[in-house]
Amino acid sequence: MKIFVVNAGSSTLKYQVIDMSDESLVCKGICDRIGATDGSLGTITHKTPDGRIYENECEMPTHAEAFESVVYALTKSDAKVMDSFDEISAIGHRIVQGGSVFPESCILDDAAIDEVEKLGELAPLHNPAHVLAIRACLKTFGDKIPQVGVFDTAFHQTMPKRTYMYALPYKYYREYGVRKYGAHGTSHKYVSDRLAAMLGKDKKDMKIITCHLGSGCSISAIKDGVCFDTSMGFTPLDGFMMGTRTGTLDPSVLTYIAEKENLTPADINRICNKESGVLGISELTNDNRDLVNAAEEGNEQAALALEMQRYQIVKFIGSYVAAMNGVDAIVFTAGIGENNPQLRKDICKDLQFLGIEIDDEPNNKRGLEIRISTADSKVGVYVVPTNEELAIARETKEVISK
Ligand code: AMP
User: Fold this and answer.
1) Which candidate in 19, 22, 86, 152 is catalytic?
2) pTM
3) Which domain holds residue 246?
4) Whether residue 288 has its Cβ less than 6 Å from ligand 1
């Protein structure tokens, strides 16, 4: 069984094909500049694990033309991987916002697509693009191939009400659904499942803190096998500082600077989502590697950005230890979490009160599912590389097998 995994943005379409017989990657690629308004062509870059590459530029006014390019790449190009798209058993879509409507993955029938579209109010940058891609799939492939929605928010739907409510007038929850939904759920679920499998334990018997540290960052507290709390909120802006996002801050800061600079809600959204975080503090870059290099060369703002981010991560982990009344395992994942051993070590140094000790030898290894704390460490600390596409493919397979 081959599953086609789609991660669609408004002008991009990332995809992977995964062979579920051995969960191997068949190919992956990206279409870019879909619907470009400056007259430029769309692009496709398609790669296979044996090193073949197909690149092309063509008209891509909508996601439908992008899918046609993908079908060509998959079935006819020099980097083809199958004779016909009929070999695909199902399409799994990553969907950022499932609200309270989608506590789990499901088949995207007409009613579900309408709901995903309605939830665009809560994720205006993402859900409308997902709907474009889902409808384009219907146009290109008809309804022969089932489409499944896998929601970033689903894993967090188990949070108790006291952890997901905001202390605003209740009517905003009742009338507009204003509450914490979280994000990166597919990754938090995947790495916590992998951890339990690695240890041969039942997730239900563990208290786990998963740290997804990438361009976007979030931390989840997992208790009794399900999500108990998570750092992202109503949108993926909440939590702690990220590449370009603020994380949590006193809301009066926003009304204050809005009045000072005559800013609109759209300006505030842009500043908080795209111009803040480590980029805003360093005035240099949102990239962790570049920041580390700049800090080593003496750039004080780069060093400050890194110190602030680390401090906020430690605070979140500490608060979740308190919230769960303990922790058995801490897991690091995603671009920074998987690749920055010094940061992992520094964070754990600040958590010494938990009896954590890091072992440098495994901590300096890359690309492995590995325990990085010593055998004596009171809390196990692990690196588990995330694989959201594989997680989506597994969910998709499960849904269509039901
Ligand atoms: P992601 O969003 O998961 O792709 O993560 C992107 C972040 O991971 C960026 O800030 C990168 O700088 C960071 N990253 C990727 N590779 C490395 C590396 N080798 N060392 C440190 N950070 C890295």
Assistant:
1) 152
2) 0.94
3) 201-388
4) yes
